[in-house]
TrEMBL record:
This is NUDIX domain-containing protein. InterPro entries: Nudix_hydrolase, NUDIX_hydrolase-like_dom_sf, NUDIX_hydrolase_CS, NUDIX_hydrolase_dom. Residues 17-146 form the Nudix hydrolase domain. Belongs to the Nudix hydrolase family. The keyword Magnesium applies. The keyword Thylakoid does not apply. Keywords: Hydrolase, Magnesium. It holds the Pfam family NUDIX. Its cofactor is Mg(2+).
Amino acid sequence: MSRNEWLPPEQWVDRLPKNIAAACALFTDPTGRVLLVKPNYRGHWLFVGGMLDEGETPEQACRREVKEEIGLDVEFGRLLLVNWTPPMPERPLPLIVFIFDGGVIEPDQIRLDPGELDEYRFLEPDQALPLLSVNEQKRMTVALEARRTGATRYLSGGN
């Protein structure tokens, strides 16, 4: 596009590629079991977290979602994983997921939001896998490895 063809800012922004983003936290209990939550609007289990609101950073969204969903106001550890997944029929935009280290918590610290979540469980990773979507299975496996090794990971693609 030449200088003479520049668009007004609002038209330029409308033509930019679009992505959506989510931020989640990987929590474990003192024995190393992973915390999963069961939303009342999904058929599978998830990490605690959710979509970024407009203007929110991934850290802000994660903190807000954790406080809303399980009643904890925590400082997160480092970023464990960034995952880009392509559009799908039920989600026509690419999704970028950030997973932060939520640390170790005790089950009695959780105050579940019954308006959004049906239940929570702390599970061994092999027990958690069948409850998760294919993408969440990959995220959990890689996030646990990232926590163990200290290296932030990146995943691209998805099913």
